[in-house]
Amino acid sequence: MDMNTFFNDLQSKVSQAIENSPAKDIEKNVKSMMTQGFAKLDLVTREEFDIQAQVLAKTRAKLEVLEARLAELEAKAGN
């Protein structure tokens, strides 16, 4: 028996054992419990976070331009 066949057979037997064991039910229950817990929290998706980060970066850039323009106008008005 070559090593590839041995490992494939071993993987198959381990998969069957997990499918027929309570571990599969535990995994489902833990996933369900975590999903319910996360649903109660006020979380945002990564996509929403990234969009807001982009909006904030654009707003900061505009603010810097406006601050520079204001400083320029104040300097002209002071002369």
From TrEMBL:
Compartments where found: Cytoplasm
Family as reported in the entry's similarity comment: Belongs to the UbiK family.
HAMAP family in the record: UbiK
Record's function text: Required for efficient ubiquinone (coenzyme Q) biosynthesis. UbiK is probably an accessory factor of Ubi enzymes and facilitates ubiquinone biosynthesis by acting as an assembly factor, a targeting factor, or both.
Lineage: Bacteria, Pseudomonadati, Pseudomonadota, Betaproteobacteria, Burkholderiales
Protein name in the entry: Ubiquinone biosynthesis accessory factor UbiK
Entry keywords, A to Z: Cytoplasm, Ubiquinone biosynthesis
Record bears the keyword Cytoplasm: yes
Gene: ubiK
Metabolic or biological pathway, per its Swiss-Prot or TrEMBL entry: Cofactor biosynthesis; ubiquinone biosynthesis
